[in-house]
Amino acid sequence: MTSYMIEITDVSKRFKEATALNKVSIKFERGRIHGVIGRNGSGKTVLFKCICGFMQPSSGHVLVDGQPVQPTKAQEIGIIIEDPGFIGSFSGFKNLKLLASIRRQISDETIRETLVRVGLDPHSKKHVRKYSLGMRHRLGIAQAIMEKPKLLILDEPMNGLDKQGVLEIRELLKELNREGITILLSSHYAEDIEVLCDTVCEMDGGVLSVIR
């Protein structure tokens, strides 16, 4: 088993005349929390999509857990990239149950326990369309962690949360990391990066630089 959960080698991604990623090479160790900072449009989200197989690089390659990344393996990665697409007329529990039914690997009880972990009521009948932004984000985190992935990729996981919610989700991420989950996250909040991350990189114009 390699000591690296993610290995990125000379990855570039071009869209017509624009270069979103420019020869990015980096290795992220397993079992740690890694932060990526950068302005909107700097390439962070494109990088995350290439790591989880949602987008193919124009050149270079990505290994996750020692294997070439494939869209069919994306279910082994817990992912929040952009706003999760939930069914507005379903409750939080019903949304997660529908998603869990695809693989049939977790029970209703596990879904309920996961909702409790992120601070949501598993018995609530409230439709997701009536959720606040913070509640939707908590539900997205529940979706990402309910099948106990080896790798968790979170693009701005604190968006929409109040101060107490931010503190709770930080503690949850620390707990998940102690359980052995490798976490890669981006955040506009410097304190999230400082408190949570073992390593920090900055994306600027498609170029990734190591800060610490």
From TrEMBL:
Pfam families: ABC_tran. GO terms for molecular function: ATP binding. Residues 6-211 form the ABC transporter domain. Keywords: ATP-binding, Nucleotide-binding, Transport. Gene3D superfamilies: P-loop containing nucleotide triphosphate hydrolases. InterPro entries: AAA+_ATPase, ABC_transporter-like_ATP-bd, P-loop_NTPase. SMART domains: AAA. The keyword DNA damage does not apply. Belongs to the ABC transporter superfamily. This is ATP-binding cassette domain-containing protein. It comes from Paenibacillus arenosi.
